[in-house]
Amino acid sequence: MDVGSLTTGLLTGLREGVEASLIVGIILAYLAKTGNRHHFGKILAGTGAALGVSVVLGVVLFLTLGAFEEPYEQLFEATAMFLAAGVLTWMLFWMRRQARMVKGELQAAVDRVLTGGSAWGLAVLAFTAVIREGVETSLFLFAQVTAAESGAPSVLLGALIGLAIAAAIGYLIYVGARRINYGTFFRLTGLALIFIAAGLLSHAIHELIEIDVINFGTQTAFDISAILPHEGNPFGEFLRALLGYTSTPEVLTLAVYLLYLVPVLYLYLRPVPVAVSPPAQPVSTPA
Q1: Which pTM does this prediction carry?
Q2: Which DSSP letter does residue 215 get?
């Protein structure tokens, strides 16, 4: 078993799964609080449909990849890695900005459906809330499996473990647990995923170099394979799967890794600006 690939899969499944579980848990808890438990089935139906679509998307991606031959396989893999890293980066910053407002917005959406539309709109609400996480998970896991090569089964196993943990956390959210600091959780797992995304980008560049789509910056930047090889060494393989480490990086892949990692880490670690309400205008009274 590839421990590094298992860890990357677990982090992805846990991070994305907790977001979906948080959404579903908040909706179910609010329905229970407002005496609408009889609508639970609709929420679960929408959630199940979103999960089904996500699984189908993942299967289609894997089947499609298997149908390509070189160099189209490498082009497809590189494109998937670029797309996964881009979607993940957008998601991390979106969640960072919106985390404080998610609960209130979901409860307001539930109220609108219950008062102004069909109760089956709750299923649509759950579907739309969860499908984004599911599609992101499928895309990101596909890119990780592609990069992991022989560690692909470990990535998928890790993702299943992470999703199972996320489901348990979702249940704790529903029953009212208050001990989980979700802000800290999302911040730490987000940091880990930034390193994984940087590794995917550099691996995508490496794929393009291998098929001569890119032919500059291809010389080896350094070679420390005698000290810590990324193949045949458990720790090196762990770092390769988790952080995109390679003991013999090309100049361009190293540059891409750093050009993504440094500014994204800086922007992600900056404090979230707090919106300040404008001062109230004095109300004039008639003389």
Answers
A1: 0.66
A2: -
DSSP state of 250: B
CB atoms within 10 A of CB 112: 12
Distance CA 120, CA 94 (A): 28
**Residue 238, amino acid:** F
Extract the tokens encoding 207.
């794929």
What pLDDT digit, counting tens, does each position of 65-100 carry? 655 667 777 787 788 788 878 877 887 787 676 655
Q: In angstroms, rounded to a whole number, what is the distance separating the alpha carbons of residues 152 and 143?
A: 10
Please check the confidence at residue 18 and state whether its pLDDT lies above 60. yes
Domain ranges in the chain are 3-269
User: What are the tens digits of pLDDT across the range 124-137?
Assistant: 878 887 887 788 78
CB-count exposure of residue 114 (10 Å: 0-12, 13-18, 19+): middle
What residues contact 234, with CB distance under 8 A and at least 6 apart? 3
**What is the spatial distance between Cα 247 and Cα 220, in angstroms, rounded to a whole number?**
10
**pLDDT tens per residue across span 130-186:** 887 788 788 778 777 777 666 678 888 888 998 898 888 878 877 765 555 666 767
Count of C-beta atoms within a 10 Å radius of residue 227:
9
Rounded to whole angstroms, how far apart are CA atoms 19 and 13? 10
List Cα–Cα distances, 251 to 1, 35, 74, 161, in angstroms: 31, 61, 20, 36
